[in-house]
Write a structure and sequence with these properties.
Largest sheet: none
Keywords: Membrane, Transmembrane, Transmembrane helix
Helix content: over 70%
Number of domains: 1
Distance between the termini: 44 Å
Number of helices: 2
Radius of gyration: 22 Å
Number of strands: 0
Transmembrane segments: 7-29, 35-59
């Protein structure tokens, strides 16, 4: 995973964390709420990141398959 793919994990995590901290309004057990917001941010960043990486791998797989199929057609056509 390159440096550019890390942003798909980190940016959603930061956004969810900041919005979660801004949404905490109850003064009861602020540490517990902070930990819960942190865990939800980690989970959201992980899910969003793996979805982005999965989509990128799927697109790359389709492109490779398409190129391989095109080369195979050219090879068959040249034999005739």
């Amino acid at each position: 995973m390159g440096e550019h793919e890390v942003r798909y994990f980190v940016i959603p995590m930061i956004v969810v964390f900041v919005l979660g901290i801004a949404g905490i309004s109850a003064p009861i057990f602020p540490v517990v709420q902070f930990v819960i917001v942190g865990l939800i941010a980690i989970l959201a960043g992980t899910v969003c990141g793996w979805i982005a990486v999965g989509i990128r791998l799927l697109v790359k797989w389709f492109q490779t398959r398409k190129e391989h199929h095109a080369v195979k057609k050219v090879a068959v056509a040249s034999k005739r």
